[in-house]
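WARN  no MSA supplied for this record, continuing single-sequence
INFO  ligand: succinic acid
INFO  echoing inputs
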Amino acid sequence: MLLFRGQSLIPDDLIAFSRRLGGLDLAPIQETGRRFVDGMPELYVVSNVMVNGEPIGSLGAGEAVWHTDMSYLPEPPKASLLYALEIPPSGGDTSFVNMYTAFDTLPEDLKARCIGLKVKHDGTYNSGGYVRQGVIPTDDPRQSPGHLHPLVCTHPESGRRMLYLGRRRNAYIDGLDLAESEALLDAIWAHACQPQFCWTNQWRVGDLVMWDNRCTMHRRDPFDNSARRVMHRTQVKGAAPPAA
Ligand code: SIN
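INFO  complex generated
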C-alpha cells in the first residue's frame, strides 16, 4: 500500500487518477439501494454524515471489521484508493494487514491444511455490519450469498502466495462441516491479524491511500459519531478472478 500526503482532489481527479491503474468497478450500492453520487457510479462515499435524515455515505461511525473490498464478487477489484476529505479529531484510523506475511508465517501444519481449500466470501453484510441492498440476511454461512475463492491464492504479478480471507462473518470453507470450518477459520484469522503484520494510517485531510486489494486486508477503528468523517473511494477492476 502507498500513502500520498497533502493531496487536493475533486472527485473527477480521483477518478481520473484511479483510471491510470485500469478500468474502474462500480461502487457497492448504498443500503438504501441508491448510489451516492449522481453521474459518478465509480465513487464510493464512506461517511457518517447525514443530510436531510439520509446518510451521504456508507459504514457509519462504528468499527469496519477486517476485510478485502468486494471479495464476495467473482472478480474483486485489484486495488482501491481512499481519499480523506474530512476526519474526526480522534479515532477512525485505518489498519492494513499484509496477507503474504500472514501466509508465510503460518505454522506448517496449518499451512498444509489450507492448501487446496476454497472459502465462501459472504455478500450479506458490509464491513460496518449493514445488510447489503436486496439481500435477505442469514447467519448460516452455508446458505448466504457470496462467492468461493481459493483460501491460498497466488498473486498474478508477484507470483507470491497469500491468504485470501475476505471477511470473517459468514465465511465458510467449502466441503467441511460447519463446526470444522468455523474452527479452522478461527485459527487462521487469529494468526492473520496479529499486530506485527499490520500498519495503521492516522488520517490527515488530503491523505490518499492506495492498496493492492489482493494481498492486503484493512479495518477501521470506530469514532465519535458527533464528529464528521468523509472519505472518497474508488476501486480498480481485477484482470482475473483470484486463483490458487
Ligand atoms: C473501506 O473499508 O474501504 C473504508 C475504510 C475506512 O473508512 O477507513
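The chain has a mean pLDDT of 94.
INFO  checksum written, moving to next record
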